[in-house]
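Consider the following input, taken from an annotated entry for PHP domain-containing protein (Halococcus dombrowskii).
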Amino acid sequence: MTPNESFRVDLHVKVLDEHVVRRAKRYGLDALVYAPHFTQLADIRAKAREYTDDELLVVPGRELFTGSWRNRRHVLALGLDEPIPDFVTLAGAMAELRRQNAVVLVPHPTFLNVSLDRAAIDRYREIVDAVEIYNPKYWAHHDRRARSIAASFSLPTFGSSYAHRKRTVGEVWTAFERTIDGVNDLLTALREEAPRRVEHRTGAIHRLRRAAEFAHLGYENSVTKFDRLVLSGTEPTHPAQEYYGDRFDDVRVY
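Applying the prediction step yields:
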């Protein structure tokens, strides 16, 4: 790897298909972390394998939805050995992540009502591997606050497209200053606090795509939330699902 080369990873996308893969390659990404909401780990792994090829590595991840709908805290986990459901307590999820020695990332800290705050990050500092300091949904004050949090805890940083829309893929990435060969190498780079840069596109198109991603929050918290709560029944990642056995009965929130 020459001084001008890097391994470019979008560390959090919600969408994955042939169009997403083409965009990722077109914009020079080497890897994506695929972590859709409310999807069982086995299905995420299968889809990641389906879209991984010699040009693009797709890494399975889980953005864990801890707590209830009224008190949500998201945690991004990579390198899971066993599945962890949503709708468990934050303490229960973190204990299981510690047991599995998973890579623990803090997405969008203190963002709206779905994120870890300073107190929670402080409580679990020893197992947190990085804090997100930029994604397209951020406004300028979110960016500044996230950077301040990462600096105050001396934690490594990362950026992602946090893409809920396909056209957002390729807008943000984390560039590691080392050769990475496969999933295990990426997990090691995150655990070892490998040098990296958070980079993103600029200009009018980037601003429009950021606005579109932020606007998507309204859709996600109205139409899709109604579907999940009223129409769809129990989530596939609810701890009551047979997939999880009874391992999380003591920490489930409903």
